Amino acid sequence: MELTYEVEGGNFSKAGHASSSIKKVLKQLNVDPKVVKRVVVALYEAEVNVVAHAYNGIITARVEQGSVSIEVRDQGPGIPDIPLAMQAGYSTASAKVREMGFGAGMGLPNMKKNVDVLNISSQVGVGTRVELITYF
Amino acid sequence: MKVSDLVNELSLTVFSGQAGLDHDVTGGYTSDLLSDVMGNVDEGQVWITLQTHRNIMAVASLKEVAAVILVKGLEPAADTMVQSHEEGIPLLGTSLEAFEISGRLYQLLNPRG
Ligand SMILES: Nc1ncnc2c1ncn2[C@@H]1O[C@H](COP(=O)(O)OP(=O)(O)OP(=O)(O)O)[C@@H](O)[C@H]1O
Ligand SMILES: [Mg+2]
């Protein structure tokens, strides 16, 4: 099964819609609740990163027998130094975004902790692709 | 213990999400950083925060928390209450600061702790 969602950069009021919808689908498919929880944490962080840091994005989730693979691809500024961005506490979030409680620099570490495979590739000035794979 | 018991014992305001007042409470988590809550709160816990915008309800719903308590007499944004209602997750309030309400909640949940 394949699901696709659009994510609007800067629109915090919709942040989490895709994660919520994918969560419902995984539950309906009777995926182990523990797996659903992990997928949801990682996906929410990826979705919010598009909202907070990029211009727009597309989420594609593929649910197969034994795995959930999610690709989050955005058009945005890109990430110049991925190992630095992966460090807990590193954030370039604006003051406004921080005031809302985002920008702790914990999103990428949360993704890493909750999925089996995290692949990030990025081109500065073009965009970022995040791949999240969970096996069960 | 149920959310409704906390409302009574801690004299909390119920802003919205009354449908979830019978949720069982397993513990609490106090934080204003959404990624911290995303990574660390557990299902069934009560989340104590000063954030009042609607994204808290997205996190609350994805993590299936029992309820959210806003501290220091803060009031939720209108769309936060709407989403709390839709999700059936109670949005509660206290005039106390996070430290105090966390302590009282801890005592209530761990009478000998
Ligand atoms: N999709 C993206 N496009 C551009 N930059 C990104 C993207 N995702 C992450 N980054 C960069 O990596 C940094 C770290 O990301 P991470 O998700 O760990 O923290 P954050 O988003 O700043 O804060 P938090 O996730 O705790 O709210 C970001 O501050 C930003 O500089
Ligand atoms: Mg982030």
TrEMBL record, chain A:
Domain Histidine kinase/HSP90-like ATPase: 18-133
Pfam families named in the record: HATPase_c_2 (PF13581)
InterPro entries on file: HATPase_C_sf, HATPase_dom
Protein name as annotated: Anti-sigma regulatory factor (Ser/Thr protein kinase)
UniProtKB/TrEMBL annotation, chain B:
SUPFAM superfamilies: HprK N-terminal domain-like (SSF75138)
The protein, known as: DRTGG domain-containing protein
Source organism of this protein record: Breznakibacter xylanolyticus
InterPro entries: Ser_kin/Pase_Hpr-like_N_sf (IPR028979)
Complexes and interactors: Homohexamer.
